[in-house]
Amino acid sequence: MSSTAGKRKEIYKYLAPWPLYSMNWSVRPDKRFRLALGSFIEEYNNKVQIISLDEDTSEFSAKSTFDHPYPTTKIMWIPDSKGVYPDLLATSGDYLRVWRAGEPDTRLECVLNNNKNSDFCAPLTSFDWNEVDPNLVGTSSIDTTCTIWGLETGQPHARVYVAGHVKTQLIAHDKEVYDIAFSRAGGGRDMFASVGADGSVRMFDLRHLEHSTIIYEDPAHTALLRLAWNKQDPNYLATVAMDSCEVIILDVRVPCTPVARLSNHRACVNGIAWAPHSSCHICTAGDDHQALIWDIQQMPRAIEDPILAYTAAEGEVNQIQWGATQPDWIAICYNKACEILRV
Questions:
Q1: Whole-angstrom Cα distance, residue 122 to residue 165?
Q2: For the chain, domain boundaries
Q3: How many other C-beta atoms are found inside a 10 Å radius of the C-beta of residue 214?
Q4: Which CATH superfamily is domain 4-22+112-342 in?
Q5: Helix residue spans in 170-232 (DSSP H)
Q6: Nearest to 319 by CA among 296, 299, 339
Q7: Residue 250: partners with Cβ closer than 8 Å, 6 or more residues away
Q8: Which terminal Cβ of the chain has fewer Cβ within 10 Å, N or C?
């Protein structure tokens, strides 16, 4: 990732008014360089901001900023690359919230709370929006459960509304669940995996929820924080343990034995993102200020070094996202900065 090349910039940088944590690319065809950013302020009042890059002026501008209770643990645009659904994004924190993006006003569509009997809610650690069926969203929670939500969009009185209902809730782990991700296997609708504080990766099928498959268990039972499926080959997924400097690549056909370990980070890894267009490239980011891109073609032979490295001079990289519809671009967050990097 170089700094300049000809007229086209290789790096665009946006400075937010507050520290950033969550971030996600929009995939709508008419919104090429649009991202949603979530603040990380250690108090109740937090923010979400939608920014867009003007390719003519090379400048980012904030299109919408709205209040959010607590920092968002994840933020995600509806996976609607054809632009046929309403322009929605979702956030997780105390609850799952679905928002309608607008300029300048983004509006809350619905708050999805599965605990109807109590004022107490178990915070949501993460969620995933199903790419094959955008009416499905899965959430993971510290109460050991995963919940699959069904979203409905209707059009009463000429205004589209969004509502949601619980399709299924299951106890997924023995301890807190930290991440959930749908797999593209088997049609891409029914398979998902989760990771959690018990140190296991578990795989589920919505059609057969009476049992799950343990794909991997950390030998020391260290909590697993992140999970990401290969975008092109659903046999592979990546996970990272708490306070670990390495990323573990798993092959679901060979459970319990990592097929590769990516271990060049010099501080703990915070984010993993597979290439949207290639089955053998993955990007990792960590507290060592680095974003690294790896080529894993030679698995199961050891992968010694990344093929590209970028150093964010001013801070620990706490988030990384590879543009789903723009595979030439990776976005990272550190401190108050969001940068998009051409690869």
A1: 18
A2: 4-22+112-342
A3: 12
A4: YVTN repeat-like/Quinoprotein amine dehydrogenase (2.130.10.10)
A5: none
A6: 339
A7: 201, 215, 216, 236, 237, 238, 239, 258, 259
A8: N
pLDDT digits (tens, 9 = 90+) for 226-236: 999 999 999 99
Distance CA 259, CA 279 (A): 14
Judge whether 36 and 49 are in contact, CB under 8 Å.
Answer: yes
Nearest to 229 by CA among 202, 200, 192: 192
- Tokens in use for 193? 């995996």
Structure tokens at 313: 């001079």
Q: Read off the tokens for 144.
A: 């050991």
Coil, strand or helix at 157: helix
Angle 327-323-276 from CA coordinates, rounded to 5°: 55
Q: How far is it, in rounded angstroms, from Cα 322 to Cα 331?
A: 6
Q: Which of 177, 164, 185, 68 is nearest to 123 (CA)?
A: 177
Could you report how far apart the first and last alpha carbons of the chain are, in Å? Answer: 5
pTM over 0.85, yes/no: yes
Could you identify the residue written with the tokens 């798993």?
250
- Indicate whether 172 pLDDT > 60: yes
62 CB neighbour count, 10 Å cutoff: 15
Quick: pLDDT tens for 9-64.
899 999 999 999 999 999 998 898 999 999 999 999 999 999 999 988 989 999 99
Backbone φ and ψ for 44, nearest 5 degrees, come out as -65, -45
SS3 134: coil
**How far from 158 is each of 106, 154, 155, 161, 255, CA to CA, in Å?**
18, 9, 6, 9, 51
